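Notes continue from the previous slide.

Worked example: a multi-chain complex. Inputs as given:
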Amino acid sequence: MLSERRLQVLRAIVQDYVGTEEPVGSKALTERHSLGVSPATVRNDMAVLEDEGYIAQPHTSAGRIPTDRGYRLFVDKLAGVKPMSAPERRAIQNFLESSVDLDDVVGRTVRLLAQLTRQVAVVQYPSLTRSTVRHVELLSLAPARVMLVLITDTGRVEQRMIDCPAPFGESSLADLRARLNSKVAGRRFADVPVLVEDLPEGFDLEDRGTVSTVLSTLLETLVEENEERLMIGGTANLTRFTHDFPLTIQPVLEALEEQVVLLKLLGEAGDSGMTVRIGHENAYEGLNSTSVVSVGYGSGNEAVAKLGVVGPTRMDYPGTMGAVRAVARYVGQILAES
Amino acid sequence: MLSERRLQVLRAIVQDYVGTEEPVGSKALTERHSLGVSPATVRNDMAVLEDEGYIAQPHTSAGRIPTDRGYRLFVDKLAGVKPMSAPERRAIQNFLESSVDLDDVVGRTVRLLAQLTRQVAVVQYPSLTRSTVRHVELLSLAPARVMLVLITDTGRVEQRMIDCPAPFGESSLADLRARLNSKVAGRRFADVPVLVEDLPEGFDLEDRGTVSTVLSTLLETLVEENEERLMIGGTANLTRFTHDFPLTIQPVLEALEEQVVLLKLLGEAGDSGMTVRIGHENAYEGLNSTSVVSVGYGSGNEAVAKLGVVGPTRMDYPGTMGAVRAVARYVGQILAES
DNA sequence: GCTGGCACTCGAACGGACAGAGTGCCAGGC
DNA sequence: GCCTGGCACTCTGTCCGTTCGAGTGCCAGC
């Protein structure tokens, strides 16, 4: 276990490095922080910290910079979450409140988060699996062609074309629509499969094939988590770090284009509370020099999706975490209201 | 008017510069192209081309590079559109044909275009204004709350919440739904306003307010061109040019994040045929060192939206134009089929 | 266990020299 | 009149050596 002072030294190194973007030496450290000891002592402490793998030297005779492990310790033990100020919170709330629909909420959230943290923001659309059904609509487009429209409580709309095995009359369709909605409206997605199980039995034999087809399409739509969408913004902020990672911006941009990678990234983060993944803790190689701060948000007290930011490992963790937490909280409120 | 040979020299300069990314000198030019004259002659021609503003020198005693004006002449007079090869065309078609819905079509198109041109691709969602209505659905969510769902022939779905001025019964709603659809289903958006004009008259006095509200929401949705969405992809390709525009990547990324800017950009392009906007021809400042190649695409013989690519002014115009044209054509086909 | 001192290392910055590419111009040839 | 070869000039990029400063590790002393 490291002594208290050595932890202070590590904290000072992280703070200075995040501020100045330059390796920090023992002398500068004692000048900028009142540690109460001389540079020589700090040097000894630094040597220990380096042995333990918390900091590293880019070259001999340069200052030290924190390693991923150092940031990890900093985040876990040395730094809290910096709360947003009251005016900031009000601004967030106001900005989000003027959203007109779901797309707008997500769009605004992305922009807000990118602006607050000055980093790349990622917001997942409220997930289907945890939401509830508001309404299922069935439209007859042709005798044997039906369009299924699913409307969720988060305002999301999914549509599917269905080719029926047999022609399906308007009245049967109306019947199915009514029965289906009475069963599933207001219910959670997870509960739907059981609820509709015996629905085909109430129909004429000739219609059962079509009913089953419609139902299985509905279930497919519900479980189709792959279809989870997300929105990103603030990629221009990446250029601010061109200094730190010179060629590394490319893999990051590539990763950001791969929605699958991002969804996986958010998916891996813990379900409750804020998750910080630092550098190599990220499974995806292209993001090895970045950190991801993410948190779940939801309309109730349950998370329905996640949002977060991607930035260089050298980021202001307390501030970023504060912004992410605040935005998640207010988005949740907005979703609950609508 | 420039002599034929000077035009050849300009063409050679553009081609070499696009290939090598380096200013091209008179000697290299004669070696790589059989112009039939000596470097000295080429030098004279270059001096003329420079006087006319078609090429420029980054520094004294460096080779020449084309100016925006030079590229313009190249595109207008010296270069054709390079058609895609048969295998390429087949690959495009196959890739697009496996799309499952509109989002997927647009997503695939973006990825395809980015990959083919190795540049940033922008695809506008099929626009509402020129499409036709497939179906209008009205759902009662609460006594005085209706959800309007508009389904277009391109498969796009728009939804709106409507707070009614007075409670509106299920039967009235069904009535309105039926009448509305019989009027507008299959009709072009532009024709809808006239078609629904006298619809309220067929309803009871107490319901007219609500009917009018619903109709005006529908019309709003139809004309709401601002809501036009688009998708971009291939931003990672920008890093390939970090060599050319060192700090210029930032404004480009910023521009790409501003959907408004991009929509305007595509909007400004001509409605028919391919449009190439080179460097400063782009109104938006951040894109002054890029060129935009765009073209309309549509399900019939009429364009319903646009797509294109954004790249450095130093791009392979014939190849890019060929790829853009081919992709637009096949997307159109796919949309027409579905 | 902390401190001041000292020798050492290494990268960044500076500057001069040099090579190479490219130009403009001019006199001569077809 | 136009093209060509030759020549002097200019500029950039690069290489190399020097210097400077920051930072370190180690050690003896308090």
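Summary box: The two ends of chain A are 50 Å apart (CA to CA). Chain A has three domains: 4-78, 86-126+228-337, 129-225.
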